Amino acid sequence: MLQRIDKDIFPNLIITIFFNIAATLLSLFFQHLGFKEVNFVVIYILSVLLTSRYTKGYVYGIVASIIAIFPFNFFFTEPVYTFTVDDPTYIFTFIVILIAVIFTSALTNKLIFSKELASKSEKQAQTLYQITSSLAKPGGTMEVAKVSVRCLIDLLQCNVIFINP
Q1: DSSP symbols for 46-100
Q2: Smallest Cα–Cα separation from 119: which of 111, 109, 107?
Q3: What is the C-alpha to C-alpha distance for residues 139 and 144, in angstroms, rounded to an integer?
Q4: Nearest C-alpha neighbor of 107 from the set 32, 27, 51, 52
Q5: 88-136 and 141-156 helices, crossing angle to 10°
Q6: Are 44 and 93 a contacting pair, CB within 8 Å?
Q7: CB of 19 closer than 8 Å to CB of 64
Q8: pLDDT tens digits along 104-146
Q9: What CA–CA distance (Å, rounded) separates 22 from 122?
Q10: Residue 20: partners with Cβ closer than 8 Å, 6 or more residues away
Q11: N or C: which end of the chain has fewer CB within 10 A?
Q12: Nearest to 17 by CA among 56, 58, 57, 55
């Protein structure tokens, strides 16, 4: 189990960091074009939603939302290129961003989980239909065994051996 967790962490962290860097670069580009700060907030929220969509687990969306506050504060709030905040309304903005992004990240991950669960249920229903329709046809014990083995292979995604006593 520990190896599986280790294998999942690295790609998910890369995705999280990638979307945050992309949001920062895109925001810097739009700042150069004269866009307002509110647009950058939307870009960072989008980056967190994309992080939630392409990573496994809601933790990465939450981490991405916390990480997103730092470059936003550093590059786009006065005084720029510092982590200090002169305007107290920015603190409120940070909190609202954090809450909104955590909420949408959790919803995104719940939707992804529901989709995966529905896909598994559909696969099981298809396998059961295949078994029932195949067993309804006249055939002997070996035909039933072949159908069962084929369906078990499809359902479990592993090798199945049938031993005829």
Answers
A1: HHHHHHHHHSSSTHHHHHHHHHHHHHHHHHHSSSTTSS--SSHHHHHHHHHHHHH
A2: 111
A3: 7
A4: 52
A5: 170
A6: no
A7: yes
A8: 777 877 888 899 899 989 988 887 887 777 777 767 777 777 8
A9: 36
A10: 44, 47, 51, 64, 67, 68, 71
A11: C
A12: 55
Q: How far apart are CA 131 and CA 152, in angstroms?
A: 10
N- to C-terminal Cα distance for the chain? 37
Q: What is the DSSP letter of 158?
A: S
pTM of the model: 0.67
Judge whether residue 1 has pLDDT over 50. Answer: no
